[in-house]
Amino acid sequence: MVSLNHYLVLSGILFSIGTAGVFLRRNLITILLSIEIMLNAVNLTFVAVGRYLGTVDGQIITFFVMTVAAAEAAVGLALVIALFRHRETLSPDAFTLLKW
Amino acid sequence: MPAFINPTILAHLVLIFVVMNLLVLSSAFMVWMERKVCAYIQDRVGPNRVGYEGALQPFADVLKLLFKEELRPKAADAFLFAIAPILSTVAALTAFSVVPFGTETTLFGLLSEPLRLEVTDVNVAVLVIFAITSMGVYGIVLAGWSSNSKYSLLGGLRSSAQMISYELSYGLSLAAVVMLAGSLSLREIVMNQSGYWFHVIPKWYIFLQPIGFFIYLTAGVAETNRAPFDFPEAEQELVAGYHTEYSSMSFGLFFLAEYVNMVTVSAVATSLFLGGWLGPLLPDWLGWVWFMIKVLAILFFYVWMRWTLPRYRYDQLMEFGWKWLLPAAVLNLIATAALVIWLG
Amino acid sequence: MDLNTIGFFVFGAIAVLASLGVIGQRNPMHSVMLLIVSFGALAGLYILLDAPFSAVTQIIIYAGAIMVLFLFVVMLLNAHTEADALPQVIGPRGMQIGAVLSVLLAGEVVWGLSRLGLTWFGNDPATIANISSVSRIGIAIFTTHAFAFEVTSILILVSMVGAVVIARREH
Fold this sequence. Notes:
Chain A is an all-alpha fold.
């Protein structure tokens, strides 16, 4: 039998995988992908707890989180494209100085 | 007997087997129909050697394809190159799984409970079709990219950009029908179209939503990359677009996926706008015959359009999708909403 | 061993393995594809949680739209030929500390949840029908949460305009 705790544990594991990706990868696109993993883990928590409480609010918040994630991915990728045009590299370490 | 060999589960498994096989066979049938109709439009005869009136021609084609060598460019990304046609085919075949093609039947009393003629029916069926259609973009994008060749990349990018542009109008026309029917389940949408006005005109949604039908079909033709929206595959422009580097059965799989996508778009159009399996003369349990007739009519229209209309240029295609079809779909949605509120 | 349990463990394992693949793969194109697999597994989990609408919107929005955007950017920037640069600011020692901290985060969540008793889901069919009905979700979004809905649409508009302006070529 699966309880709410199982889903929360899975969500915690996915969230820490996303966090590890943001810390450890030196590629801007992979960092953005790891942020998406974290957002998904949070969505899973919302839906699981919504199921437990018997309301649809969990799914509604998920809907809004997905929309915000889309907006954030669009702007983030536009920034990556603009940065890539200046330095021809996708490593975040190349952008440590404030002046071009 | 073990629990899983009860007749209902067996009937379901047989139904799934029959549906999937019929989809693949319908793709073969489409190959034949396309070549024959194209021939008659062009005032010639078409395949007439293999079988009666060339009916076995598709099987001859498949055999020829099977015997060809499977090539792969050396610089291609092997895994993605191999998986792209599989993605296309799986998405195409799965999208049909929520389309109902008949009423419940008990197979003349063999089954204890009635079996619905569909693979499954979820209460979000319309969204499932939309979701799986948008997954079909990946097969094309990956094929274009992993072939590591200019023509493939350009063809893949153009094709996928076209598909995602027309997905919006596709979804909005679906939303208008859902508003009329009040449900996302295809079976319920078809059942809402039963009955007649004035005992003569069937209550199909095409009469309530003529613009919606036009938008849906146009977006469907653009989604399946068929003429007049097939610029990315046009032989004169891009060699063969995203499937330039594919040979033998991988190429065959892309073709299968394209034809099965056409069948799915036609089947969904039938269910949403043309009343599904409902029809005047036949008894209820023969509803699937009406379904097949309607789907064949739309498929004939597809083929007819391909061989009659000239091709859109790519920028004309994108302009049409964004500047004309999308506002039309939005206006259609608003008008349908007003209609539904006004008529209660 | 009913379908719910098997489904949970299968989809959960796929999601975790695919996410590990996303952060482990060298080639960003493969990372994107593995993330799509992970999204598919999560959609399966949503269906097990009686949330078919969330599952389908997950596929439509995440796997069908956002990932296509990522794919286009990876292809545009030719990012598949980029190898990961060596960490310069934090150094290899910093990377190891980061890895350890992430594992500690996961461990802390698991430990914290194991201290509580198991919380079982209710199985009342009326509640389940309430949750999985799309019309309920629609009513709630457009009445109770209408403000958030409108603000989200303005947010999307802002991000669209912003993305076009930021990624534009300077002339």
